[in-house]
Design goal:
Layout: E1 3-5, H1 12-16, E2 35-37, H2 38-41, H3 45-53, H4 69-75, E3 82-83, H5 101-124, H6 127-130, H7 135-160, H8 185-202, H9 217-234, H10 243-258, E4 280-286, H11 302-310, E5 323-324, H12 326-329, H13 338-342, E6 343-345, E7 391-394, E8 397-400, E9 402-404, E10 423-429, H14 430-443, H15 447-461, H16 470-487, H17 523-534, H18 540-553, H19 559-565, H20 569-576, H21 610-615
Antiparallel strand pairs: 1-2, 3-5, 4-10, 6-9, 7-8
Helix pairs in contact: 5-7, 7-8, 7-9, 8-9, 9-10, 10-14, 14-15, 14-18, 15-18, 17-18
């Protein structure tokens, strides 16, 4: 009997991510198998459904005990907007290498995922294997498996460029290599495009069985559009002269016209506990649940994200996973709610004479007015002068005192306490579709429509969609914070319930809802000013999309890849992070992040892992690392 040895081990994450429509409903119950017989899996519809879930098992993987690290390494740190210390610091300076274990771990995650999808595709395409399964289930499973295979291979293609294609019926020993040069990057994307096109044609807009987390038509079309744009970039023609940009634009138009998605009324609520809002095209929801206060479970789910992603300086020792730069913090306009909905700062005791590089106003005038209750990074540092600075000393490295709160909504207590904090892992948000559609409009000469869609995202950032909805939004989102603070009021470091009550004792949302549109300036006007002020050698719309993506998607998976393939990452580094030789010893009272390295576009095709080169002599290293 043919065995699939751990091929279809259904990781707990695969079942957990497939939640029912309401986050209040229980997670899908899935059996776990160490060895699953192929005959057993195809014996009934139910068993086959368990096997299909294996396609999702590699959505997330721990690296150095942190399941979020690939996000930061490949999609945050290369922008320098996210900052790191310790052994992660090399990812800020393009000094990563082929022999880093993290590089191989991500490679393995993606190709293991492809292998699991291939097995389902093989069964779906073989009548002898699927004769006991309903035809409609075979069709649906094939679409999901191809969507997921396309997704995994797409991530590999955008990360390394020139990668092997692993098809159904093959194993790793069958890989023919990656072409010997960067020349097969387009071939890989063609394979991805065919997978995602087939998936989009056969999936519905709504997730199958109402289980949010499954691949959908919207998910397939969104990544298909990205694959087209990456193909244009790999061909050296990202500006729309070929068919790829118009093809991407068509896919995005279908998503928009479907009416399936819309922007969340408030950006600040996107990372609150309520899951699967209308902006979510595809996401993974990690749930802390009842596993809090158990060390062995800390890094397997939301707790790992909360502890390590937030890099709380007092609660978690500031291990260096994530800080945000002052350059990023000061890129926001007055009235833009996204900054305070994304981050907070520690106490700064002496703001010095530093000015915002865009507005020329003193930095103190642009500090956060609001946070989630009280600032979780200020409670324990009032009597610690080392933490009352622009940068604090983390074992010899100076880290910016700016902290993400996208995944720290309820992490106001210390890391050993009872944190319950669901985490939204957004793989694709509607805001990304709108900005990418705007990019396609600009690249095809429709500037008026492009600016219209840029301003849709910008207007939400200034609270336009909150206007008139203040009471409804407060009623929906505020009670969680009051309930959490009340339940946790006895734990050290937690803020009491009074911080989440209004004057009448009602639940109060941490950041007030309402419109700031009195501060709003249309994107074309504003970014024309920014382009001139900072000296960007880009079109005004390129400056707009660069800066809007930084503001909207900090710490999310899409940031660095979008800046890379749209051709603006080099200019971002040059302008937003100018060369700066300030020594570490002087950073405490200095806001900006020093940069000494020269950006290399070639290095953004990351090195093929050294372990994989040893295993497969047919592979050739990317040219920046030979």
């Amino acid at each position: 009997m043919k065995n699939i040895n751990k091929y279809l081990a259904l990781a707990l994450g695969a079942g957990a991510m497939l939640t029912a429509q309401s986050c209040k409903e229980s997670y899908l119950d899935v059996d776990h198998y160490d060895i699953l017989s192929a005959d057993y899996m195809t014996s009934t519809d139910e068993h086959f459904e368990d096997g299909v879930l294996s396609c999702y098992a590699n959505m997330n993987q721990m690296i150095n005990e942190d399941s979020m690290k690939p996000w930061l390494w490949f999609s945050g740190h290369p922008t320098m907007d996210t900052q790191a210390t310790g052994w992660d610091k090399s990812w800020l300076t393009q000094s990563w290498s082929a022999d880093q274990g993290e590089m191989y771990a991500e490679w393995q995650r993606l190709y293991d995922g492809i292998s699991l999808c291939n097995k389902i595709i093989e069964i779906c395409n073989d009548p002898a294997q699927n004769s006991n399964i309903k035809p409609e289930l075979v069709k649906a499973a094939l679409a999901e498996a191809r969507a997921m295979r396309g997704f995994y291979l797409f991530l590999a293609a955008q990360t390394w460029g020139n990668v092997p294609i692993l098809k159904e019926g093959q194993n790793f020993n069958d890989l023919s290599g990656n072409g010997g040069t960067e020349g097969n990057a387009v071939e890989v994307l063609d394979f991805v495009i065919e997978d995602l096109k087939a998936a989009a044609d056969n999936l519905d807009w709504a997730p199958r069985n109402g289980q949010y987390g499954r691949a959908t038509k919207g998910m397939a079309k969104a990544f298909l559009a990205e694959a087209y744009l990456w193909k244009a970039y790999r061909k050296g023609n990202p500006n729309g002269g070929g068919e790829e940009v118009t093809s991407a634009k068509a896919q995005l138009e279908e998503i928009i016209k479907s009416g399936t998605y819309k922007l969340q009324e408030s950006f600040t609520t996107l990372f609150d506990p309520l899951a699967w809002n209308k902006e979510s095209i595809w996401e993974e929801v990690m749930d802390e649940g009842g596993q809090s206060n158990q060390w062995g479970d800390f890094h397997t789910n939301a707790h790992g994200w909360t502890d390590n992603y937030a890099a709380c300086p007092d609660g978690n020792g500031g291990w260096g996973t994530l800080f945000l730069s002052w350059e990023w913090y000061t890129c926001y306009e007055k009235g833009d709610k996204r900054r305070d909905g994304s981050a907070c700062t520690s106490i700064i005791s002496d703001w010095g004479n530093f000015k915002n590089r865009i507005t020329d106003e003193p930095l103190e005038q642009s500090k956060s007015e609001y946070c989630y209750g009280k600032n979780p990074y200020q409670a324990d540092v009032k009597n610690q002068p080392g933490h009352q600075t622009y940068h604090w000393d983390n074992g010899g490295d100076r880290a910016p005192n700016v902290y993400s709160i996208k995944w720290w909504r309820t992490g106001s207590n210390t890391w050993w306490s009872n944190i319950w904090n669901p985490v939204h892992v957004y793989w694709k948000r509607y805001a990304d579709v709108l900005l990418t559609y705007a990019e396609c409009c600009f690249r095809t000469g429709d500037n008026a429509t492009g600016w219209e869609y840029v301003d849709m995202v910008r207007e939400r950032a200034f609270g336009k969609l909150e206007a008139g909805q203040e009471a409804a939004l407060t009623s929906k989102y505020a009670p969680y914070y009051l309930a959490y603070a009340t339940a946790e009021s006895g734990n050290a470091g937690t803020y009491g319930p009074d911080n989440f009550k209004d004057a009448d004792g009602n639940a109060k949302y941490p950041i007030p809802f309402g419109s700031n549109m009195s501060d709003f300036v249309k994107g074309e006007t504003y970014y024309g000013m920014v382009k001139t002020k900072l000296g960007f050698n880009l079109e005004t719309w390129e400056v707009a999309l660069l800066q809007e993506r930084r503001k909207e998607f900090n710490c999310e998976w899409v940031l660095a890849p979008a800046l890379h393939r749209s051709g603006v990452l080099a200019e971002h580094i040059r302008v937003n992070y100018p060369k700066d030789s300030t020594p570490i010893s002087e950073l405490a009272n200095y806001p900006w992040c020093p940069r000494s390295y020269e950006y290399s576009e070639d290095k953004m095709n990351f090195p093929i892992p050294a372990q994989e080169l040893l295993r497969n002599p047919n592979l050739t290293q990317n040219k920046a690392y030979r």
